[in-house]
Structures are given as structure tokens and as C-alpha cells.
């Protein structure tokens, strides 16, 4: 029997998991700070939800879904993204008026596995529903930007575009199709096959990019309402000092986007996997899955890629390692006292020699040691060059002043 996880999936334990835990904790702080409460939806949904919501011509729906028939004969699919499920949950709750939700959890896409492109990966994201004004888009873009900065994603850039709406996009798509038609012989087979079904996706093709330098851009074909909205988003981002670059080629891989589309790029990562997040506005999604009109905007960020691109050094997993010169039970009790006062503590349960316990302590990377030499007397505390004997009840306060 092999102990390898399935292709494209990972076992993530210490020390790698320290940085995961810090990034996910940081995420909760930022989502809270912007007023996005937690929303939890199922890991699988009816297949139909993704076909109607995300688009049955998108690569993620045609090639990457984990779909199976359950024992009741229903076709279900492991979620490959969070937006469609959250919008379904919002409609199901029958909420009226502005609504916010933040999520965090695994997603599944049948991809060709490589670094930063996994079959099971972790997304955090937000959805802001029943809102139309550009301030909502700017708030969402800002939240992702501030969080990614806080977790020290190296070489972070925000790329922005507007994809128009049902008024102006059809005209633009016709113009783009004409442009692509004239260049059929210069395009790759995949792009040629998309000219009729989904010409916007051709703009995303890395192979054809050199031929598409002068392709018409959506932002030059926006109707007045979309142009106003886009100008409003940019003006708000300017006032927030969120830097961005505009890219008329940014189209995103999911069909539900209208108006604002954006990506967060970690320019230090290998190009194919350097999008650490993306999002945009999806004013027609709720209707496309059979609900009422509920315009919305949101993003999702890929934690696997964030961890790869973060330059942050994880802090030690515990503050204190307790060493016992008597027996493990004394270390257990001392640890319990220190833990109850808010310190993160570990100790050796196996009754090893003091020398061996010091070795385990070094491996733990805990910055402080507490040495118990009898069950009721003072304990020795070591932190850097400081070395002091204290009653156990005074250790936490003394250490907290130095650790925090
Ligand atoms: P997405 O661009 O498909 O958007 O995914 C968002 C992020 O998830 C990507 O930028 C990337 O960091 C990460 N990601 C995607 N696929 C993989 C993979 N196979 N392995 C590792 N990381 C991956 C969405 O999912 C939309 N639901 C975002 C959204 C929310 N739009 C509006 N609201």
C-alpha cells in the first residue's frame, strides 16, 4: 500500500502548516475588520448549479469538475469555487438588502498538477450581495490587497479591467470576433475553436498573446453606465491608495462576470501560477441560477499560492518548553498553569533525561524554557540571556512582557 496522497493533493503538517495557520488566522482578522461574517456552504452541490452559474462553456466546468452520481441518482459536483454556492445560500435564506459573507475551505479542480496548481486547494473569499455602487467593488478590492500585504505576498500587483454588461458586451464581442476571424491562421487550435463559442477567452491565451497586441479592448467599448461605474471604482481605489494597473485583456476564467474584473498577481511566482487571487462583479449570477436579481461582487484568494509567495517567516509554534528534573507529571501540571494564563506551551511526556529534554526543546523552537526541579518550589525561567527563579504563578506575566 502506498502512503502517497492522491495526485494533486497534499498532506500539510508542521513546520509548513505553521505558516498556513498564521495566514488563515490573519484572514479571519481582515474579513472581520471589513464586516464579512463567516458563511459555510456544502463541499458539494448539484452539478446544475455550476453549469448554470459558472457557465457550461468554461474550462473549469467542461474539463475540471469532480462529478459523480450519488446513491439517490442525483448528479453532484465537488465545489470548484465558492461563489455559486454562496449565492445559492443567499437566495435560499431569502435575505433582502446588502449582505456579506466570508468563506474559507478546500476546492476541487481536476487540473494537471504542478506547484501552485493542485486538484485540492484552499480558497478564502468574500461575496458582497445586493449592492451595485462602485464603492462596494473598491471595498472588496481593498480588502484583498490589504490582507495580501499583511501576509507579505512578494511582488504583489492588482490588475483591473471592466467587462461591461448585457448592454455593451454583445457589440464588443461581435467586434472582437471579427478581429479574431481575420487572424485565424495565426491563432492556436484551441483559440480558433473558441472564436464562435467564447471569443473573450482567446484574449487569455498565452500562446496567442503576441498576435493579439492590438486586439480591441472592452474598456474602449463600454456603455455610459458601465464607463461611469468603472471610473467610480478607479477613483475610489485612487482615494484609498490601492495601486492597480489596467489590463484590457483580463477576462477571467468563469462566465459570470460583469463590469469589474480583477486579479492579484504575485510577480515573483512562475507566470502560469502567479495569480494569488481574483474576482469581480457578477450582476447576473443570481438570476442565471433561477433566483431574483441580486448584483454582487467578490473575490477568492488561493492560500496554496499565497503560502508559496509569502516572504513571512513563521513564528515559533509554542512560546515555552517546560523541562522537568523530577517527572513528566510535574511538567504537565506546570504547563497547565502556564497555558491557563495564555502562554503556548509544550513539554516531553516520556520521562527522558534533562539533556534529552533540552534537545527536544531546541527542536520545538520555543524561545523560552521553564525548568521544574521540585513539585512546589520556584521554577527556573530562561529567555535569551535572562535566567531567573520565580514562583510558577509569576512566570506568565514575566514572560509575556518579553515575548509580546
Ligand atoms: P478563480 O480565479 O478561479 O476565481 O480562483 C481564485 C484563486 O484561487 C486563483 O487566483 C488561485 O490563486 C486559486 N486557484 C484556483 N485554482 C487553483 C488550483 N487548481 N490550485 C491552486 N490554487 C488555485 C474563483 O474561484 C471565483 N469564485 C472568485 C470570485 C469570488 N469571483 C467573485 N467572487
Description:
The structure is a single chain. The chain has 404 residues and is of the alpha+beta class. The protein folds into 2 domains: 241 residues, 2-Layer Sandwich (BirA Bifunctional Protein, domain 2), CATH 3.30.930.10; 84 residues, Rossmann fold (3-Layer(aba) Sandwich). Helices cover 37% and strands 21% of the residues. The strands form 3 sheets. The protein has a 7-stranded mixed sheet with strand order 4-5-10-9-8-6-7, sandwiched between helices. Strand 2 and strand 3 form a beta hairpin. Helix 1 packs antiparallel against helix 5 and helix 1 crosses helix 11. The longest helix has 18 residues. It is elongated, with a radius of gyration of 26 Å. The mean pLDDT is 95. Histidyl-adenosine monophosphate (HAM) binds next to strand 5, strand 9, strand 10 and helix 11.
Question: Do you know the CATH architecture of the largest domain?
Answer: 2-Layer Sandwich
**What molecules are bound to this protein?**
histidyl-adenosine monophosphate
What pattern of helices and strands is seen along the backbone? HEHHEEHEEHEHHHHEEEHEHEHEHEEEH
CATH C-level name of the largest domain:
Alpha Beta
Mean pLDDT: 95
CATH superfamily of the largest domain: Bira Bifunctional Protein, Domain 2
Q: What is the strand and helix layout of this fold?
A:
Layout: H1 16-33, E1 44-46, H2 47-53, H3 59-63, E2 67-69, E3 75-78, H4 83-93, E4 99-108, E5 120-129, H5 134-150, E6 156-162, H6 169-182, H7 189-197, H8 199-202, H9 224-239, E7 245-246, E8 258-266, E9 275-281, H10 285-288, E10 296-302, H11 303-309, E11 320-324, H12 328-340, E12 345-347, H13 354-364, E13 368-372, E14 379-383, E15 386-390, H14 392-403
Parallel strand pairs: 6-7, 11-12, 11-13
Antiparallel strand pairs: 1-3, 2-3, 4-5, 5-10, 6-8, 8-9, 9-10, 13-14, 14-15
Helix pairs in contact: 1-5, 1-11, 5-9
